[in-house]
Amino acid sequence: MAAAGKRMLTPLKRVKGLGSARSGTRHFWIQRVTAIALVPLTLWLVWVILGLVGQDAFVARARLAEPVTGMLLVAYIAALFWHTQLGLQVVIEDYVHTRWMEVALQILVKFAAVAGAVLATLAVIRIALGN
Amino acid sequence: MRERPLSPHLQVYRWPLSMALSILHRASGVALSVGAIVLVWWLMAVAAGGDQYQRFVDCVGSPLGKLALFGWTLAMMFHLMSGIRHLLWDMGWGFERERSQATGWIVVIGTVVLTALVWLLARGGL
């Protein structure tokens, strides 16, 4: 029975391991890996933001200009936007059934995620370099 | 005889906790995606400094801004707690009915506690 089941796939299909959806488990895995990264990073960011409540622009800038803070912010931005666009992709796949609208929304989400990540990273670099 | 739906229907279905949490996980994720825009705005405002930072502070400090921030705090703490529950499931832990019910309530209570804690700290100026 097991042998017969295996013969349903060609050896190449089995090696590629992409399954019926043809995309494998890559989406699932990255969603989880970024989620794991976001647990400590989110708690850290909330802590940083709480420390800035009521502070002026100079204090905010000086705090975020610290090297470790800058690095963690960039890591947070990367994990956040990667995780976000993977999640939104699934939501669109599930609820938008008009093909052209689905494709347009998927592209819009990818572009917006990259734009958000690029703008935020550039801001962190400007803060770190002081210009 | 009262007219009844022929199959389980959302309006007459008593939602199991996990079903409500699952829907909320998705909804909070979408809400947080919108919140990510504010994060970008915040960093850009800090980078620009001066008037632009002040404009950001005025906006998020307004009653409407605070309400939105509170909503995002709630969504973030929920998504965080619920996400950890999902990660435990992914490792094969916690599928038993009692255990998933218990972790579901931990998510609900944890969300309320963490959100309250964040806002108490924020109001106290830390």
Automatic annotation (TrEMBL), chain A:
Xref: Pfam families: Sdh_cyt
Cofactor(s) in the UniProt record: heme
GO MF terms, alphabetically ordered: heme binding; metal ion binding
GO biological process: tricarboxylic acid cycle
Annotated membrane topology: Multi-pass membrane protein
InterPro entries hit by this protein: SQR/QFR_C/D (IPR034804), Succ_DH_anchor (IPR014312), SuccDH_FuR_B_TM-su (IPR000701)
One cellular component term from this protein's GO annotations in UniProt: membrane
Keywords, ordered alphabetically: Electron transport, Heme, Iron, Membrane, Metal-binding, Transmembrane, Transmembrane helix, Transport, Tricarboxylic acid cycle
Chief localization: membrane
Transmembrane segments: 29-52, 64-83, 103-129
Pathway involvement of the protein, from the record: Carbohydrate metabolism; tricarboxylic acid cycle
Record bears the keyword Transcription: no
Gene3D superfamilies documented for this protein: Fumarate reductase/succinate dehydrogenase, transmembrane subunit
Entry's localization field: Membrane
Task performed by this protein: Membrane-anchoring subunit of succinate dehydrogenase (SDH).
NCBIfam families registered for this protein in UniProt: succ_dehyd_anc
UniProt name for this protein: Succinate dehydrogenase hydrophobic membrane anchor subunit
Organism of provenance: Pseudofulvimonas gallinarii
Automatic annotation (TrEMBL), chain B:
InterPro entries in alphabetical order: SQR/QFR_C/D (IPR034804), Succ_DH_cyt_bsu_CS (IPR018495), Succ_DH_cytb556 (IPR014314), SuccDH_FuR_B_TM-su (IPR000701)
Pfam families attached to this UniProt entry: Sdh_cyt
Record-linked PROSITE patterns: SDH_CYT_1, SDH_CYT_2
Record key words, sorted: Heme, Iron, Membrane, Metal-binding, Transmembrane, Transmembrane helix
Main location: membrane
UniProt remark on cofactor binding: The heme is bound between the two transmembrane subunits.
Transmembrane segments annotated in the record for this chain: 21-44, 64-81, 102-122
Topological type in the membrane: Multi-pass membrane protein
Co-factor requirement: heme
CC per GO annotation: membrane
GO biological process: tricarboxylic acid cycle
Residues bound to heme: H79
Location within or outside the cell: Membrane
One Gene Ontology term of the molecular function aspect: electron transfer activity
Keyword Cell wall biogenesis/degradation tagged: no
Quaternary assembly: Part of an enzyme complex containing four subunits: a flavoprotein, an iron-sulfur protein, plus two membrane-anchoring proteins, SdhC and SdhD. The complex can form homotrimers.
Family membership noted in the UniProt record: Belongs to the cytochrome b560 family.
Role this protein plays: Membrane-anchoring subunit of succinate dehydrogenase (SDH).
Name of the protein described by the UniProt record: Succinate dehydrogenase cytochrome b556 subunit
Protein source organism: Pseudofulvimonas gallinarii
